[in-house]
Fold:
Amino acid sequence: MDNLGYLFAGYAVVWILLFGYMVSIARRQKQLEREIELLKDMKGDN
Structure:
């Protein structure tokens, strides 16, 4: 039972890293969508 705190800390770190990674992916996806729209506007295919 002494190691339960370490287990919880390990899970917390993993979940925080996973959440940060997902936020990073969402930001990159939004940026790509903006770039795609910009390219479509430049081409005139709207």
Observations:
- The longest helix spans residues 4-43.
- The CA atoms of residues 25 and 31 lie 10 Å apart.
- The mean pLDDT is 93.
